[in-house]
Design goal:
Blueprint: H1 25-28, E1 76-77, E2 91-92, H2 95-113, H3 123-126, H4 132-137, H5 150-163, E3 166-170, H6 177-183, E4 185-191, E5 204-208, H7 213-223, E6 237-244, E7 258-262, H8 273-285, E8 300-303, E9 306-310, H9 317-331, H10 338-351
Antiparallel strand pairs: 1-2, 3-4, 4-6, 5-7, 5-9, 6-7, 8-9
Helix pairs in contact: 2-10, 7-8, 9-10
Length: 374
C-alpha cells in the first residue's frame, strides 16, 4: 500500500535541538529499564543540562507558566462561545490540584525505590526491576485493541502532497507507514509554513488522551485547518502527532495519544493566544466523555486528560523527569522517608532548570501564562 524504506529496524527521528553535553553523564549513569528515545523524536544518548536551548529548523523540533487566575483552588467555569456549544460543561483544574498531585506521585515512588523500614534501596531497585517510565506514562485501555484501517491514513498522505501544508512522518519509521501502522507509532504532521520563534526560547506542547484511535483521527481532521492559509495560528504550529495502528494489539499505550507542539505568540506575553486557540479547537471537537482522564505526572492539567507543558529540548518531557528522579535515587542510597525524597527531587528539578513550583515548566523570568479554555 505504502512505500517501504530499506531500513530493517526503527530509528528515532532526530530533533532540531540538543541540550549541551555538560551533564551527558546523568543519563549514562542512570539505572533504567526503559528504551532510549521513548516518547519523543529524540536520540537515546542525550543528557540533561540546566541551560535550555530551542532551535527552530526546517523540520520543527518535537520533542510554560503559572495560571495565577486559578491559584485560589476553585475550578473556573467555561465561558461558552458559539463555536463551542457542546463544551459548556468543561471546567478547568486549579493549579493547587497539580501541586498536590506532584507531591503524591513523588511520595508514592519513594516506596518503589526504598525500603521504608530501613530507608535503604529496595530489592526491586537493586535487582533492576523498577520501570519508572512505564508507571509514569502507560495506562491500560482499549485504545490499541480497536485499530484504524490503512486507508484512513492514506487520505492524509494524499492531502499532504496536494495541499503542501505538512509533511507526514512516522516517528520511528519515517515514510514506511505500513511498518509503523503494524506495530503502532506516532504519525507526525509537520507544518511546512512555520514563521515564528519560541517565546523566551521555549516552545510548548499540549497533550490529549483520547479514548480511541477513531477519536484521534477526528482530532487530526480538526487540527489540520490550523495549518491552512488564513489561519491565525498557522505560523506558530510546529507539529502535531497522533498515535495510530492498523492491527489490534495488547500493548499498553502511553497516555499522550495526541501531542501538539507550538511556539507561543510573544506579541502579547500576558496571554497564550496560540495555546488557547488549540484548546478551543479540542473542546469544540470532542466531548469530555471522549477523553481518558489519565495523564503522565507533572503536566499542568487543563481538564482531566488534557494538559500542557514547556518543551525543554533534547529529550521528552516525561523522560527528563524520569531521569531526574532516577538520578536522585542513584545519588542517595539512604533516604529517611517520602518527604525527604520529595525534597531531594524538587532540589534536583531546580538544578536541571525545571521550575520546582511549576514542574511542567522550564525555570524562566516572566513566563507567559499557560493555555486555557476561553
Amino acid at each position: 500500500m505504502f512505500k517501504k524504506t530499506k531500513r530493517q529496524r526503527p530509528k528515532g527521528i532526530k530533533p532540531g535541538s540538543q541540550l549541551s553535553d555538560a551533564l551527558r553523564g546523568l543519563q549514562q549513569n542512570t539505572t533504567t529499564t526503559t528504551q532510549p528515545g521513548d516518547d519523543a523524536d529524540t536520540p537515546g544518548d542525550v543528557g540533561l543540562n540546566p541551560t535550555i536551548t530551542t532551535t527552530l529548523t526546517s523540520k520543527s523540533e518535537d520533542d510554560s507558566a503559572e495560571r495565577s487566575d486559578q491559584e485560589d483552588g476553585n475550578a473556573l467555569p467555561f465561558r461558552p462561545r458559539a463555536q463551542n456549544r457542546n463544551a459548556t460543561n468543561w471546567a478547568q483544574a486549579p493549579l493547587s490540584v497539580k501541586k498536590t498531585a506532584d507531591h503524591e506521585f513523588i511520595a508514592n515512588e519513594y516506596y518503589t525505590f526504598y525500603d521504608a523500614t530501613t530507608g535503604t534501596h529496595s530489592d526491586a531497585y537493586l535487582e533492576r526491576k523498577t520501570d519508572l517510565y512505564s508507571s509514569m506514562s502507560k495506562f491500560d485501555g482499549e485504545y490499541l485493541k480497536k485499530p484504524i484501517h490503512v486507508l484512513e491514513l492514506a487520505k492524509y498522505c494524499i492531502s499532504g502532497l496536494e495541499r503542501n501544508l505538512y509533511t507526514l512522518e512516522a516517528q520511528n519509521w519515517d515514510d514506511d507507514y505500513d511498518s509503523a501502522l503494524k506495530g503502532a507509532d506516532y504519525f507526525h504532521f509537520r507544518n511546512k509554513n512555520v514563521r515564528s520563534a519560541p517565546y523566551n526560547g521555549i516552545a510548548r506542547r499540549i497533550v490529549l488522551n483520547t479514548k480511541s484511535q477513531q477519536l484521534s483521527m477526528k482530532m487530526v481532521d480538526a487540527l489540520i485547518p490550523l495549518l491552512e492559509q488564513g489561519s491565525d495560528v498557522r505560523d506558530f504550529i510546529l507539529n502535531f502527532k497522533a498515535f495510530l495502528g492498523d492491527t489490534p494489539l495488547e500493548e499498553i499505550p502511553k497516555a499522550d495519544k495526541i501531542v501538539i507542539y507550538y511556539n507561543p505568540d510573544g506579541s502579547d506575553p500576558r496571554n497564550d493566544r496560540v495555546g488557547n486557540r488549540i484548546i478551543n479547537v479540542i473542546i469544540g471537537t470532542i466531548s469530555r466523555g471522549d477523553i481518558d482522564p489519565r495523564l503522565a505526572p507533572f503536566y499542568e492539567t487543563i481538564v482531566d486528560g488534557l494538559g500542557w507543558a514547556d518543551e525543554q529540548g533534547g529529550a521528552s518531557f516525561t523522560t527528563i523527569r524520569q531521569m531526574v528522579m532516577e538520578q536522585v535515587v542513584k545519588e542517595n542510597p539512604f533516604v529517611t522517608d517520602e518527604e525527604e525524597f520529595y525534597t531531594l527531587v524538587m532540589q534536583k528539578f531546580a538544578q536541571m532548570a525545571i521550575d520546582p513550583s511549576n514542574t511542567h515548566q522550564v525555570a524562566q523570568k516572566n513566563p507567559m501564562p499557560g493555555p486555557k479554555i476561553t
